Inverse folding.
């Protein structure tokens, strides 16, 4: 029974998005309509996917660069954790002035850059977790056998860190994908993403379109997590 | 200032209540060995969950309609407002539902490693079901669950989107209050942001000290 409870929100959103006018006191939708799905725009989907892709690549690269320091120093761990727990609103308010001077507000790349802040800490932690399971002697052995620095990375260390890289990338994707307030503050409403569209429709009271957007918004992270899970089995 | 302090306590209340509920239900589900497709709720964005909760539980939502249909209430005004109430029940519900799988997965990872041997020893020594849970299983779970709870607490404390969508104008969480000031008085918004940042840095410090394995 509990097993199927997780599907309740999905089934409800499907019904709500295909129901037309569905007002009190109707328990069963009196009519069906494709209007809500017709109103779903492509632009927020493209923006959200693009921003999440940039965040994934950027956060994983920063994660690889910082994971070693994270393992060694408690201060770095504290700094990374603080970044992870810092309220997105505080980040946005704090950086708005700087981004304004740099001409990065109201721009797609400004938003992409600021998405690196909440995503990078999780990539660092994921890569560091893989790094802690990696035996450094393996790299030393490869070097003794004459492998170059690049070869050690390509054939020994990189493959060993792959699970951490994949987990970090998935985290970065989901966090960037769900980001609302940072996008709103730095993008100034010009960069329209899925969470912004969702909040907009919900606040304006158009429940059917909000439900359709919520389903689109739900799709990518669920597919991603199922795929990551399958990969390990 | 009084407004900001009140909003600080409201934020603490929401974070504490959601974390406590999610922890309790997550550990319970893990102990009962519930087989659930955790990926769905785990990956579901908070805003999606918030939209579902509003549509289902609002005073004219689907649940109220079912109660009306069964004759429980006479109209939408009689259904208790759990979505935009004084205590933020709707927000707590969203986070409790969303974070339950996180705690459940974490507890299941620990339980799998334990493989029941400690419990078996305690049983041999005459410990009952409740005693095994209280003195064996829960203490073994604590080292993993306490830092996890701290993380969730910090996350809910920091959050903006769900309280923004679900909450009332008053009381509002710190992030929402700061966002309002950002439009009217930027200095105050910066002040609240710095305060929240310091609080988060403190939580992060605690987490780093509590977690021993990295």
């Amino acid at each position: 029974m509990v097993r199927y409870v997780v599907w309740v929100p999905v089934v409800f959103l499907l019904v709500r998005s295909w129901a037309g006018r569905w007002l009190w006191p109707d328990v069963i939708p009196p009519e069906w309509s494709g209007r809500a799905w017709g109103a779903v725009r492509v632009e927020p989907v493209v923006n959200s996917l693009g921003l999440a892709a940039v965040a994934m690549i950027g956060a994983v690269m920063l994660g690889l660069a910082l994971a070693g320091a994270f393992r060694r120093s408690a201060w770095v761990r504290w700094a990374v954790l603080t970044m992870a727990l810092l309220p997105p609103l505080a980040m946005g308010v704090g950086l708005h002035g700087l981004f304004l001077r740099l001409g990065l507000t109201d721009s797609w790349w400004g938003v992409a850059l600021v998405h690196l802040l909440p995503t990078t800490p999780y990539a660092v932690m994921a890569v560091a977790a893989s790094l802690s399971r990696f035996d450094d002697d393996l790299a030393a052995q490869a070097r003794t056998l004459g492998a170059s620095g690049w070869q050690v990375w390509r054939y020994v260390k990189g493959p060993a860190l792959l699970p951490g890289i994949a987990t970090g990338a998935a985290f970065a994707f989901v966090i960037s994908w769900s980001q609302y307030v940072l996008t709103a503050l730095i993008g100034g409403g010009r960069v329209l993403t899925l969470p912004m569209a969702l909040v907009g429709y919900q606040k304006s009271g158009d429940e059917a379109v909000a439900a359709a957007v919520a389903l689109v918004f739900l799709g990518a992270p669920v597919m991603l997590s199922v795929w990551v899970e399958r990969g390990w089995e | 200032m009084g407004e900001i302090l009140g909003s600080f306590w409201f934020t603490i209340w929401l974070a504490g209540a959601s974390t406590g509920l999610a922890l309790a239900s997550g550990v319970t589900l893990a102990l009962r060995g519930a087989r659930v497709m955790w990926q769905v709720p785990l990956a579901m964005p908070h805003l999606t969950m918030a939209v579902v909760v509003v549509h289902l539980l609002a005073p004219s939502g689907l649940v109220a309609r079912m109660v009306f249909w069964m004759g429980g209430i006479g109209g939408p005004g009689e259904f208790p407002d759990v979505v935009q109430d004084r205590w933020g029940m709707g927000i707590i519900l969203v986070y409790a539902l969303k974070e339950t799988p996180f705690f459940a997965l974490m507890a299941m990872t620990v339980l799998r490693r334990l493989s029941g041997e400690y419990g078996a020893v305690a049983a041999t020594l005459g410990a009952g079901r409740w005693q095994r849970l209280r003195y064996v299983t829960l203490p073994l779970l604590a080292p993993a669950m306490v830092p996890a709870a701290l993380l969730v607490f910090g996350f809910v404390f920091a959050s903006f989107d769900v309280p923004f969508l679900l909450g009332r104008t008053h009381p509002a969480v710190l992030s929402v209050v700061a966002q309002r000031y950002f439009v009217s008085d930027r200095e105050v918004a910066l002040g609240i942001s710095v305060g929240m940042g310091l609080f988060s840095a403190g939580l992060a410090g605690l987490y780093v000290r509590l977690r021993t394995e990295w």
Summary: The two ends of chain A are 25 Å apart (CA to CA). Residues 42-232 of chain A form a domain with the MetI-like fold fold (CATH 1.10.3720.10).
